[in-house]
Every structure is written in structure tokens, then in C-alpha cells.
Q: What sequence folds into this?
């Protein structure tokens, strides 16, 4: 059995991955709040697309920032590029499915539960597709009870996030909810990683795929930059309530007794 280290750089990757999970959740919730208050179908669709990209990108970036600290004694680690990209697409697709089910579902309760289940299973799929992209000298196994627990955490996290999107409106509440969601997503990741076992088979052959510094790190930085630029746009866009308050404040007031 190879020695697994999930934090080869100390607390750097766990803290950064948690921060990214919180950031993606906060941005996604903010976009969802905007979508639910949108006055036109086009505006609602665009905000839901932004929410899906923010949540999906945040989850994926959190996963691979954490993976940058993953090492196995006795073997190098490479990543299969097509599967890594597939895991990103899955993350965005399932986040989109959840957001649109929430935004267009007529019965909010059942829609939230169905969307939470589908999104949670999709997040778990993203995680394990990402792990299947790992290439090393040896074989990877999984502890099934720990895998099941990680899937359960993913479903609970997704459902809680969608419930929050339905019931949270204030900026402070969104911030607190994003901290909780970030903790849950990070817990899901490290629970899933605790399920991993590696049997190392030393070999002089070169591994296929790209190293983390060649592919995963640049892609993670690029997606992180995308999230920050999107957050700047969203932060500068007033909510429907803020727009209504501005319009109300700009209306001329009628003097007492005026006809």
C-alpha cells in the first residue's frame, strides 16, 4: 500500500480549496437570488446560467486545488486530460440542472428535492470522474462505506444549497450560507479521498497524461480568475429589491394639500 498524503503543502491546499468552495457557493446563491427575482424570462435564464457556471466551477476548482496536495509515496501522479475536462463539464451540467429545476419548477418543494438529489449525485460523479483521471504506478481502490457517505454528504449539501437559494435573500444570510455550503462540499471531498486506497507497483515506464503543474494548476487559476471577474460583475448589479428602492426614491413626492 502506498502512503497517501492529502495535504502535501500543509494547510495551504485545504484552506484554499475551502475558500474557493465558499466563493463559488456565494456567487451561485447571489445569481440564483437574482434569477428568482428576474422580471423577464431571458433575464432569469441568463442568471441561472451564471449560477450554474459559478457553482459548478467553484466545486470543480475546490476539488482540484485539494488534489494539488495529493501525493502517493513511491509513484508520480499524472492526470488524463479528457477525463479531467469531463469532470468539469459534469460539474457545470449538474449545477445547471439543479438551478433550472429550481428556477422553473412549479412546485418548489418537490422540485428542490429532485434537483438536490440529481445535483448531489452529479457532484459525486464529478469527484469520482476526477479521481478516475489520476494516473500512477499501481492501482486505486475504494472503501465502499466511505464512498456511500461521501455521496450522502453531496446530496445533503446540494439540497441544503437549493433550499438556501429559495429562502435566503439578504447578503449576510447568503454569506453565512456559503460558509456552511463550502464546509459541506469540502467535507464531501475529503470523505471521498478517505475512501481511496492505492497499491503501488513500481515501474520505470513513463506515465501517460499531464502533471498537475502542466495542466491542472493553470486550468484552476484560469477558472478562479473567471469566478473573480464574474463576482465583480454580480456585485455591481443591483437586485430587484434594490432597483425598486432606487426607483421609489427617485419619484417626486407630492406636497401636502397639492391637487
A:
Amino acid at each position: 500500500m502506498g502512503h497517501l498524503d492529502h495535504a502535501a503543502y500543509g494547510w495551504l491546499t485545504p484552506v484554499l480549496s475551502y475558500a474557493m468552495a465558499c466563493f463559488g457557493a456565494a456567487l451561485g446563491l447571489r445569481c440564483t437570488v437574482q434569477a428568482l427575482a428576474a422580471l423577464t424570462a431571458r433575464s432569469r435564464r441568463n442568471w441561472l446560467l451564471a449560477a450554474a457556471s459559478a457553482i459548478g466551477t467553484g466545486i470543480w476548482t475546490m476539488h482540484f486545488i485539494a488534489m494539488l496536495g495529493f501525493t502517493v509515496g513511491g509513484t508520480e501522479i499524472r492526470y488524463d486530460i479528457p477525463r479531467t475536462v469531463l469532470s468539469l463539464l459534469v460539474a457545470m451540467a449538474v449545477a445547471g440542472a439543479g438551478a433550472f429545476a429550481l428556477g422553473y419548477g412549479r412546485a418548489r418543494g418537490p422540485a428542490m428535492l429532485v434537483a438536490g438529489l440529481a445535483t448531489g449525485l452529479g457532484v459525486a460523479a464529478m469527484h469520482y470522474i476526477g479521481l478516475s483521471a489520476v494516473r500512477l504506478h499501481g492501482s486505486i481502490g475504494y472503501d465502499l462505506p466511505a464512498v456511500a457517505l461521501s455521496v450522502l454528504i453531496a446530496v445533503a449539501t446540494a439540497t441544503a444549497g437549493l433550499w438556501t437559494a429559495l429562502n435566503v435573500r439578504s447578503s449576510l444570510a447568503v454569506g453565512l450560507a456559503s460558509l456552511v455550503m463550502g464546509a459541506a462540499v469540502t467535507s464531501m471531498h475529503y470523505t471521498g479521498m478517505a475512501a481511496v486506497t492505492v497499491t503501488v507497483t513500481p515501474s520505470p515506464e513513463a506515465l501517460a497524461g499531464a502533471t498537475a503543474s502542466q495542466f491542472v494548476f493553470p486550468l484552476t487559476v484560469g477558472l478562479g480568475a473567471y469566478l473573480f471577474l464574474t463576482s465583480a460583475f454580480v456585485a455591481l448589479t443591483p437586485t430587484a429589491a434594490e432597483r425598486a428602492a432606487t426607483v421609489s426614491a427617485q419619484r417626486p413626492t407630492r406636497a401636502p394639500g397639492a391637487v
